[in-house]
């Protein structure tokens, strides 16, 4: 009986040693894999397992610090962007109240001709926004000019619509441009006479 107990005890010890050895090998492999993920560094002597773990901890902390700085920078840029956008919107509203902008859009086959009449203040912002909207709808701007008459600025833009655009592409672009300039399309018909004498003149051209 005592011999059987001794054998069982010996067998249990062997199993524990095997389990412990396997555990250590597993941990060693995990430490090695973790260290392999770090940027390559040159050391005079191979690092011990403890030193490898220390290097991993240092690297993780440095990345956390960088990430925090990037988050703060992003938040700062977002705040700046929001302030700039708010200022631009205020300027546009001020321009609208001082001299309401007007827009007319002609569709000729696959070509859109856009005429924008606005006041002197902030007219560039409105012009660039129109260009951005056209580009977002994959309309290729092939000609643009402007002229100034008194306190009014006349912008003319000609854009080509690609063959891949659906038949509703021009209508969608027209709606977006009207919404940006006027807030709605309800008053467009009453503006037609105001635009009839405007033609594209090569005052200033960007090809």
Could you characterize the architecture of this molecule?
The model is unreliable at 184-207 (pLDDT under 50). The chain has helices spanning 2-36, 49-98, 123-136, 169-182, 192-195; strands at residues 102-108, 111-119, 139-149, 152-161. It has a 4-stranded antiparallel sheet. The protein is α+β, with helices and mostly antiparallel strands. Strand 3 (139-149) and strand 4 form a beta hairpin. The protein has 5 helices and 4 strands; from the N terminus they run H-H-E-E-H-E-E-H-H.
Radius of gyration equals: 35 Å
Percent helix: 55-70%
Give me the number of helical elements: 5
Question: What is the total tally of β strands?
Answer: 4
Q: Give the low-pLDDT segments.
A: 184-207
Which class of secondary structure composition applies to the elements?
alpha+beta
Tell me the major beta sheet: 4 strands, antiparallel
Q: Can you give the mean pLDDT? A: 76
Give the amount of beta strand, in percent.
15-25%
Shape: elongated
Widest β-sheet, arrangement of strands: 1-2-4-3
**What is the H/E order?**
HHEEHEEHH
Distance between the termini: 102 Å
Keywords:
about 210 residues; elongated; single chain; alpha+beta; disordered C terminus
Secondary structure: elements and pairs:
Blueprint: H1 2-36, H2 49-98, E1 102-108, E2 111-119, H3 123-136, E3 139-149, E4 152-161, H4 169-182, H5 192-195
Antiparallel strand pairs: 1-2, 2-4, 3-4
Compose a concise summary of this entry.
With 207 residues, the chain is an alpha+beta fold. The chain has five helices and four strands. Mean pLDDT is 76; it is low at 184-207.
């Amino acid at each position: 009986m005592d011999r059987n107990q001794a054998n069982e005890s010996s067998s249990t010890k062997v199993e524990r040693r095997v389990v412990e050895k396997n555990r250590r090998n597993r941990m060693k492999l995990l430490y090695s894999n973790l260290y392999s993920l770090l940027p390559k560094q040159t050391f005079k002597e191979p690092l011990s397992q403890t030193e490898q773990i220390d290097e991993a901890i240092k690297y993780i902390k440095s990345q956390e610090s960088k990430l925090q700085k990037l988050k703060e920078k992003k938040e700062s840029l977002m705040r700046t962007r929001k302030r700039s956008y708010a200022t631009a919107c205020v300027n546009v509203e001020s321009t609208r109240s001082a001299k309401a902008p007007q827009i007319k859009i002609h569709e000729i086959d696959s070509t859109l001709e856009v005429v924008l009449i606005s006041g002197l203040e902030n007219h560039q912002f409105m012009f660039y926004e129109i260009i951005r909207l056209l580009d977002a709808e994959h309309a290729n701007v092939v000609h643009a000019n402007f002229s100034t008459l008194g306190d009014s600025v006349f912008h003319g833009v000609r854009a080509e619509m690609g063959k891949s655009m659906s038949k509703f592409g021009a209508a969608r672009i027209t709606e977006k441009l009207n919404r940006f300039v006027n807030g709605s399309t309800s008053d467009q018909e009453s503006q037609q006479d105001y635009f009839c004498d405007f033609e594209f003149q090569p005052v200033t051209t960007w090809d």
